[in-house]
Specification:
The structure is a single chain. The chain is of the alpha+beta class. The mean pLDDT is 89. The protein folds into 2 domains: 208 residues, BirA Bifunctional Protein, domain 2 (2-Layer Sandwich), CATH 3.30.930; 43 residues, SH3 type barrels. The strands form 2 sheets. Strands 1-2-3-7-6-5-4 form a 7-stranded mixed beta sheet. The protein has a 5-stranded antiparallel beta sheet with strand order 11-10-9-8-12. The chain starts with 6 loop residues before the first helix and ends with a strand. Helix 1 packs across helix 5 and helix 3 crosses helix 5. The chain contains 6 helices and 12 strands. Strand 8 and strand 9 form a beta hairpin. Helix content is 23%, strand content 30%. The longest helix is centred in the last third of the chain and has 22 residues.
Length: 268
């Protein structure tokens, strides 16, 4: 049912797709956090990849726990080094989300899958993936970026306590079509797509990704409540701008440009 993580299989798939950049792999049966593993590594010019069958202290945005059943899903982090203006990284989570979505689509998933700003992948109203990005500024422009990704692949959440709250239900690739997937194949595609999207983003910025985002924007045109610290804003989500900021049009006709926060839908 669930094929174990296998470095050899991942490397074979990368070679079949002519991906030859240097990579160091760190695969575990259990680890506290794949992001933490990469943060503790010395600096490297190679792409560093960490993945585990389970995480004991996996977390998402705002420090929330990320449920990590053993051997079912992808708990994955990658570390990259970029020479780039840090002020331009406001759109980074959006670019990463597009790379994840591209990976999912390669496995014959397209309909009803969208991205909820800034970095959650949804199938209908169920969350199937989330991202946690951490930056370490080495000097003025050299940035070390660690991208943690949780992708629900083979879990069946139908009777899970996680789905007892209708406000934040979970989903998985398995639940979409009742098929189990080899996570090694998905990881190899994820590495390739992350590299392509991140490289293009560094070269050209976020502008050329706007049309791609607009096609999969979960919030667009919907009544949205934005929680940002102690501030609460209500309005209609109007997509993102070239800097990756969410545009929220309030009832008075004022547009708010948001770089962070938590968006929830409301019916009125």
């Amino acid at each position: 049912m669930n094929t174990p993580l296998c470095q050899k299989t991942i490397i074979q798939q990368l070679k079949l797709k002519n991906f030859n950049k240097p990579i160091n792999f760190h695969l575990y049966d259990s680890i506290d956090s794949t992001n933490r593993v990469l943060k503790d590594l010395p600096k490297s010019t190679s792409i560093e990849i960490a993945a585990s069958e389970t995480q004991t202290k996996g977390r998402g945005r705002f420090g929330r726990d990320w449920h990590s059943p053993h051997g079912e899903n992808i708990y994955f982090s990658s570390k990259w080094n970029f020479f780039f203006e840090p002020t331009k990284f406001s759109a980074l989570s959006l670019i990463v989300s597009l790379a994840i979505l591209k990976t999912i689509e390669e496995f014959k998933f397209k309909e009803n899958i969208s991205i909820k700003w800034p970095n959650d992948i949804y199938w209908f109203n169920k969350k199937i993936s989330g991202t946690l990005i951490e930056l370490n500024k080495d000097n003025e422009k050299n940035i070390e970026v660690i991208i943690g990704i949780g992708l629900n692949v083979n879990s069946n959440f139908a009777n899970s306590p996680l789905n007892m709250s209708p406000e934040k239900p979970w989903g998985s690739l398995y639940e979409i079509n009742r098929k189990y997937f080899d996570r090694n194949l998905i990881i190899s595609s994820l590495i390739i797509n992350l590299d392509k999207y991140l490289t293009d983003f560094i070269d050209i910025g976020a502008k050329d990704f706007l049309k791609e985002w607009q096609k999969v924007d979960y919030l667009y045109g919907k009544k949205t409540t934005m929680h940002k610290g102690n501030e609460i804003l209500h309005g209609t989500a109007m997509g993102i701008n070239e800097a990756g900021l969410l545009m929220l049009l309030d009832e008075k006709g004022k547009t708010h440009y948001l770089s962070s926060g938590e968006a929830t839908l409301h019916s009125t």
